[in-house]
Amino acid sequence: MSGPPPSPTVDAEVAVVGAGAAGLYAALTAARAGARVALVSATPLAQTASYWAQGGLAAALDPTDSPDLHRRDTEIAGRGIVRRSAASLLCREAPGAVRELEEHGVTFDRDASGGLALGLEGGHSKRRVVHAGGSATGRRVVRQLSAVVVEEPRIEVLEQARAAAPWTVDGRCVGVVLEDGRAVRARATVLATGGAAALWARTTNPPGSLGIGMMLAHAAGAALADLEFVQFHPTAVTGIPGREGFLVSEAIRGEGATLLDANHERFVEELKPRDEVALAVFRKMVEQDTKNVWLDMRHVDPMAFPNIVGALRESGLDPATELVPVSPASHFCMGGVVADLDGASSVPGLYVVGETACTGLHGANRLASNSLTECFVQGKRAALAGLSEPRLPVAPENPPQTTAIVAPTQATRDALWLHAGLRRDADGLRQLSADPHPLAQIVAACGMLRQESRGAHFRSDFPEVDPALDGHHAVVRNGGSPAFESWT
Description:
This protein has a five-stranded parallel β-sheet, covered by helices on one side. The N and C termini lie far apart (about 60 Å). The chain has helices at about 20-30, 65-75, 85-105, 135-150, 210-220, 250-255, 275-290, 305-315, 370-385, 410-420, 425-430, 440-450, and strands at about 10, 15, 35-40, 55-60, 120, 130, 155-160, 165-170, 170-180, 185, 190, 225, 230-235, 260, 295, 325-335, 335-340, 350, 355-360, 470-475, 485. The longest helix is centred in the N-terminal third of the chain and has 20 residues, at about 85-105. The radius of gyration is 22 Å and the shape is globular. Strand 2, helix 1 and strand 3 (about 35-40) form a beta-alpha-beta unit. Helices cover about 30% and strands about 20% of the residues.
């Protein structure tokens, strides 16, 4: 009796896994360069994590600004371990990314004189953040790029398809296997599946941000780095039914909103880098034994942030007249799959972009609104670099069997929040290292290795920065224990 028919295989030159900002842009870039692209999206297009992004794109567009000033702000926010080559590249190419998005039909907000409206956010020394529809930037950009992708004949979109395993032959990645048994075969595979912030019990991220790309890449043999650095956003809504973890954009503080303690007194400079503000909020809550602080945006024009104001009003709170209860929540992973400046991982043929990747750009604390910019700068570079990969001399057959991606239990999410939250120590990290989830174990191992406090990693048993660790990244290679490496 003959066996079952072979699983259908989609052939492409570039396979892109993930249809957020980075994935969409990588797919478009490859297609516009003449390549056949397979775009794998776990959700219908325009429903990815990027869709909910409220921040804008950081780029030195003002005449008084410069890529060098932008780089310096990035390095200051990153607390001494930003990879300078990565920061220089991003800041140099950011203005061009904004112009290219406009060419793709994205309409950015304009000021009264018709120029791009530039916002100010924490850690920036200049107004350099462009938005589309105020705090609806992610929605506007992803919706427009999705529309362009659908019209691009070289892109085959595989919607509601989930990657389950990397496809490797003799150490080279040749594609990806999907949960339904199909496979995508390609000369270059780009993982753009987002970060892992939803592994923490309290998060601003959608449920799917579980580090899927990191686990896929690690299964293929790629190195991971800096997983101890997870940024906590200081102003996530708390205590409002249906809006728990809803992000209130930092841009609102850039327009004058203030943070107040239980006595309705200011206690922090609101536009300091995000790690400082989040830790100040956390400490104030501990000091006053409260579950939240208050965001006062009563003097901010509600028309400038219609989706935030509208969402809060739908939940019964009017931010134009009432204070908003907020507290920190897990928001962004600075760590991820080790990548060079073109997004290439340590596995030939495998590329990573966006929050899946770790180029060293964000250091120990991401500068606000660099993440969306990174999606477009690195998405473009990875797509073009992928097209330089050699064509497969013999098309490989028999993709590997699918393996279920390990989903976190509520116990894992609670453990990460408790032991790898805004405050960590050796005892808690040791407990976390026994968790069954593979990424939780690596977070614990990286946190144990870094015996200092830096950026988003605060250890109460090592509360000071160790200057000897400037420029050093905790890297996990070949399934081993993390070790420090110096990147330039």
